Amino acid sequence: MQIIKPDTQIDFVSMRRIALIFSLVLIIVGMGSLLVKGGPNYGIDFAGGTLVQVRFTAPTNAADIKKALEDLSVGSLVVQKFGEESNEFLIRMEKSSDELQGLSREVEGHLVKVYGADKVEVRRTEMVGPQVGKDLRNKGLKALFYAMLGILIYISWRFEFRFAIGAVVALLHDVLITLGAFSLFGKEIDLPIIAAFLAIIGYSLNDTIIVYDRIRENMGRYNKENFGFIVNHSINETLSRTILTSGTTLLVVLALFVLGGGVIHNFAFAMLVGVLIGTYSSIFVASPILIFWQERKAQK
Predict the structure, then answer these.
(1) What is the pTM of this model?
(2) Which domains does the chain have, with CATH numbers?
(3) How many helices (H) and strands (E) does the chain have?
(4) pLDDT tens-place string over residues 92-151
(5) How far, in whole angstroms, is CA 235 from its chain's centroid?
(6) 53: part of which helix (H) or strand (E)?
């Protein structure tokens, strides 16, 4: 099935400088947000502490819940709305305790005093110690690093070193923009989000390799043409496949984002941003880096 005519020749190569500016703006805005906020907003998995999910039968808000818990000695306290339910909230506490159920009952007791016994339901309680959270965070970062290193080695062996550099830069580009989006929208980063980042790396790499494979084929077929023409022609030849694959994936991820509920909302958000940016980077980041490399080589 083809939705783009085989003889289509959109001049993607001429847009590479505009794409570079666009990418730099997205990365700078995202990294600027991280600096202003003092780093990523780590969830319980990485920051440590206790998380309690509470459902209320009566209307309330985060400020009133926080006020009801002000006498509870749990360190810093954050209350936020959970999912689409207007009466469901997540309560994050700095304190962690071996007596998890005891802490849960303590929170429930303070809320019952204010809202009434039949108006409060504790639906979930999770606890991670600070040392465990730090260890999980380090292992998550190592997983991302080793994934990038493995990709660099594989593509250097499968294609050429310049192709590997283009692929890794495109993947870093995707991860940085997705991370920046999480900071801008105030979303938490936890273990499922690291899994989402790894999935984004795999998806984006798959798109990039399809384009690279066609570039390598066309280098032998059109050896008398300049390299920019070969790259542009290769992107156009794989464009139909890229749109079909990305479009169907986006439909699934969008359904998860809209209908999946609060538990997987952040994961779906990461995948949604990652698939869009990954498709964009395969065309406007990974391939133009090959042209830049070729131009530098020609100058030398």
Answers:
(1) 0.78
(2) 13-38+132-299 (1.20.1640.10), 49-128 (3.30.70.3220)
(3) 11, 4
(4) 776 655 555 567 777 778 788 878 777 788 888 777 666 666 777 788 788 888 888 888
(5) 25
(6) strand 49-56
